[in-house]
Design a protein that fits this description.
mainly alpha, globular, about 200 residues
């Protein structure tokens, strides 16, 4: 079997370490060691740990950003309900897998500030999915499939906020289980449509 390319090994190692010890405690030195390469070799592919984090989110986790971008680029395809259900499903999976990686940053405010500054420089951050979903909903609004007076930013925030909450809010319930993914996504989409869709029932 062909050995994996160095970039792939580095991303695999970064993903595993970020999941197991958290982003705050993961160092590029440890990532390089786990990937079987030097730290200098790691920096040939990635400029910083923050860039590695962004690439892990984009290439190892459920692909939320490409889904939102493709829908915004071609509004009017499919039904609003099907599209929003698909977005909610992908977002719930994305937050479920990304929350354990990033949560450790919140215990170290100075490190989080440095991390946030680096993400801004890279044009990334947790605000981006909200902006991208807002852009998609505004595109549908321009086509007349979303009510003209609907607050698309609030709608995007509500949908993605609920998906993010699913990642950790249900640990404290009696069973500790999250709501089943497909039913959760469908219920979110239908509820959101009740506030923004031009159709009386399903759009």
């Amino acid at each position: 079997m062909e050995p994996k390319p160095a970039r792939v090994r580095i991303l695999d190692a970064a993903h595993e370490l970020m999941l197991t010890v958290g982003l705050a405690r993961t160092t590029t030195k440890e990532i390089a060691r786990a990937a079987g390469c030097s730290e200098a070799a790691l920096y040939k592919y990635f400029d910083s740990k923050e860039e590695l984090f962004v690439r892990v989110l984009a290439e190892r986790l459920p692909r939320l950003t490409p889904l939102l971008a493709s829908l915004a680029a071609e509004p009017g395809q499919g039904t609003l309900e099907a599209n929003l259900t698909g977005i909610a499903r992908q977002a719930a999976l994305f937050y479920e897998q990304s929350f354990p990686i990033a949560a450790s940053l919140y215990a170290e405010p100075q490190l989080k500030r440095r991390h946030d500054d680096a993400l801004r420089t890279l044009g990334a951050g947790p605000h981006r999915p909200i902006q991208d979903l807002d852009a998609y909903l505004r595109a549908e609004q321009a086509l007349g499939r979303v009510r003209a007076d609907a607050d698309t930013f609030a709608a995007a925030s509500l949908l993605l906020g609920a998906c993010a909450q699913r990642a950790f809010a249900y640990d404290m319930t009696g069973t500790g289980e999250r709501p089943p993914l497909d039913a959760f996504a469908a219920r979110l989409a239908r509820t959101l449509l009740g506030g923004i869709s031009v159709a009386p029932t399903r759009a």
